[in-house]
Amino acid sequence: MAEDKKQKLWGGRFTGETDPLMHLYNASLPYDYKMYKADLQGTKVYTAGLQKIGLLTEEELDQIHKGLKIIEKEWSSGEFKRHPTDEDIHTANERRLGEIIGRGISGKVHTGRSRNDQVATDMRIYCRDLLTETVLPALAKFIEVILLRAKEEIDVLMPGYTHLQRAQPIRWSHWLSMYATYFTEDYKRLQQITDRLNMSPLGAGALAGHPYGIDREYLAKNLGFNGVIGNSLAAVSDRDFVVEIMFWSSLFMNHVSRFSEDLIIYSTAEFGFVKLSDAYSTGSSLMPQKKNPDSLELLRGKSGRVFGELSGFLMSLKSIPSTYNKDMQEDKEPLFDCLTTVEHSILIATGVVSTLNIVKEKMEGALTMDMLATDLADYLVRKGVPFRETHHISGECVALAEKTQVTGIDQLTLEQFQKIDDRFSSDVFKVFNFEQSVERRTATGGTAKSAVLKQLASLESQLN
């Protein structure tokens, strides 16, 4: 047991044994092992910084770096053997380094460094690399798939909805462009967060700073950071970047959930606008005819999981005194799960969009002439009638069509139109054309073909 105490980075002060349950309660290696590469990278640069100020010889540094390389291979191949005393990834790596090169040299790697600035550094490297190398490219691909679909299916019309009631005709591509806009804003927001978190805490020590005057700017530059966090207290205690990533994840998953909800509705037999591929659907254990949109329902459901992780961590963080406190260990599990959930959700959503089929006939068949009531009001506006008046007149036309039980307002006679308002003339029937309705909306952001194509081009340029 005495040997076990020596393995602990903090063991010298303590003479009593740790409760085995406390060891399990305290340990974070089961989940923070994910940061092994970031931890080894941080140690590699940190020890180079120690050598730069004369606390390590070149020969010692060389042995350390060779040992770190061996450890990285062990982790990546799955051959790394964990020890019962390994509390966390930092303890595990340093313990293994001592086994490889001897504790006389490995014992120097932590000179002037605390696990407080070490873990903060590891987390920032891990998050930066995962976001830039995995999440952002996957999100860009998702948006590109939506944009490609929108360009290919630009001529398809469908009802646009407010309050889930048919409102005005739009292009299917206009609907796709709406979500591409949301997701592109998410993409840009994540870029900003990634840039903001890319600051180095390394060299801040436990809280008060480095006692040997290490070159923090050198450490930051060689770890790919944009600079250093200027206050050592803030450097070790700041977890705002974790909160920001979780905030971003919650907002992104909110958009994914709404996107999924629309497609779930559109895939019902009552709508029949889209059909999901078999790859992203499941059946019923009882009803053979069922084809359930489980992929979309899971996307919608997992948004709640991400929201919960954010609120849970905020509750852990809200009353922590300065600077580092063990409560902060609660940042990793929700953060890692958040990032994994988001990454998998992006991949599933991309698969759904790239493989679903639209039913053009159903979409266009759902268009009804009452959806052109605003166009009827606009017809009179073009004749100089104030819109507030034309809105009322158009409403009377809709009411008359319902009262006379014709199939639509386009079935009213010219005489019936003129009885409501004598400013109607024979050209009123030109209003009742869905294609012309969408094509009138050419202003930026509208549903005319030219306007939608401009939206898609703008979104593409923002990604590039």
From TrEMBL:
A Gene Ontology cellular component where this protein is annotated is: cytosol
Pathway assignment reads: Amino-acid biosynthesis; L-arginine biosynthesis; L-arginine from L-ornithine and carbamoyl phosphate: step 3/3
State the Gene Ontology terms under molecular function. Answer: argininosuccinate lyase activity
Q: What is its EC number?
A: 4.3.2.1
Signal peptide range in chain numbering: none
InterPro entries in the cross-refs? Arg_succ_lyase_C, Argininosuccinate_lyase, Fumarase/histidase_N, Fumarate_lyase_CS, Fumarate_lyase_fam, Fumarate_lyase_N, L-Aspartase-like
Q: Per the database record, which ranges form the Fumarate lyase N-terminal domain? A: 12-308
Which catalytic reaction applies to this protein?
2-(N(omega)-L-arginino)succinate = fumarate + L-arginine
Q: Where is the Argininosuccinate lyase C-terminal domain?
A: 371-439
Q: Which domain of life is it from?
A: Eukaryota
Biological process according to GO: L-arginine biosynthetic process via ornithine
Residues in coiled coil = none
Q: Which PROSITE patterns does the record match to this protein?
A: FUMARATE_LYASES
Query: What protein family does this chain belong to?
Result: Belongs to the lyase 1 family. Argininosuccinate lyase subfamily.
Record's protein name: Argininosuccinate lyase
Its taxonomic path starts at: Eukaryota, Fungi, Dikarya, Ascomycota, Saccharomycotina
